[in-house]
Design goal:
Elements: H1 19-35, H2 78-87, H3 108-119, H4 139-150, E1 158-159, E2 162-163, H5 173-176, H6 179-187, H7 209-222, H8 239-252, E3 260-261, E4 264-265, H9 275-278, H10 281-289, H11 307-317, H12 325-349
Antiparallel strand pairs: 1-2, 3-4
Amino acid sequence: VAYLSTRKGKKPFAVDGDDTASVALVEKGKRLARDKGCTGCHKIDTFALGFNAPEHNGIGTKRVEELIFADTDIPHTLPDWLKMKVKNPRAFTTEEIPTLMPKFGFNDDQAEAILTMLLSMRKHNIPAKFISILEDPKAPSVRGELIIEQHNCRGCHTIGGKGGTIGPNLSFEGERVNPEWLVKFLQKPIKIRPSGILPTRMPTFGFSEQEATAMAAFFADTSKADYPYYLPEKKVMSATDTEASWKFYFQSFSCQACHAWNGQGGIIGPDQSDLGNRLRKEWIARWLADPQKYIPDVRMPNFELYPDEAEKLTNLMMTFTDISPSIWAQIKKRWEDEQLARQAEQMEGN
C-alpha cells in the first residue's frame, strides 16, 4: 500500500504524520508486491503488466461508492476496505461477484506496508495553485518573536516581563490593540503620546507587511487574545446613555484634561481620536475598571468605575473615530461651558 501510493509522482501517503516511515513502508510494500506475485495479475506502475485483475494505478483515489463491502462489518472507508482485501480477500465474495484473489497470510506489519503503498497511488494530478500547504498555527507567532529579537525591540520595550522602559510596556499588547491597526503602525509609526511627555521615538524599521503581521500574531498569541480580530459593531446608544456618557467623559472624570483628541487637549495620556480603531473594545472596559492592574505606576487614576459607567464610556469611546474635528469642538465647548457655569454658580453661592 505504501508503494502504490507513490505512483504518479506523488509524495508517499503519510502514516501517523511520519513521512520517513511512509517511504520505508512504500519500499517494503513494493518488495512484497513482487515477492507475492501481485504483479502477475495486477498492473502496478511500469514494473508489472498483469491483466487478470483490476489495475492498481490510481487506487489511492478510488471512491468508496465503487467498493463492494459484501457482508463485512468494517467501516466503509477506502483504507479499511484495502486492508481487509489484503488480509482476507475472500471476505468480499458474493454470489454475483466471486473473488479469485488468494489469501497470502500477510501479518499486520506486511498488510500495513501494502496498504500504505496502495493509498499512495494517486490518479489525479492536482494543480499546485489548488493545493493549500497546512501550517502550524504557532508558526506566525514564532516568526514574530524572531523578528522582535533581531531588531532588539526589548531594548526599549518590556515584552513578556523583560526589556527596557523607554517605550510603552508591550507585555499585554496583544490583548490591548487591534492587530490590523498594529500591522499598519509597525510599518509606519505615528505619534500617539504627547510630545511634551513621551514622544514617539520609535524608528521606522521598514517592516514588510508579512513581518508586521507575524509580530502582531506573536503579541496576540502571548496574550492569548483572539487572532485574527474583528472589530465589533458599534453599539447604538440611546439619547439618555449618550448624554450620561459625555457627562462622565467631560465632567465626572475630566478625561480631556489628560488626553488629547486629534492633537488638541491634554498632554499626559495618549491621543484618543483613533481609539475605536486602535484598541480592542474589551480591553478598554478592563483598563477603565483598573488601570493599575496592568501598569502599577501609571499616571491615570483608578476612578473605581461601576460596571455600567465603564460600559457607557467604552461604547462612547468606540465612536470617537466617527466624529469630525468640528463636531468634537462643539461637543467639548458645550460641556466645558456648562461646567464653567456650574462652577460660577457655586462660587456665587459661597
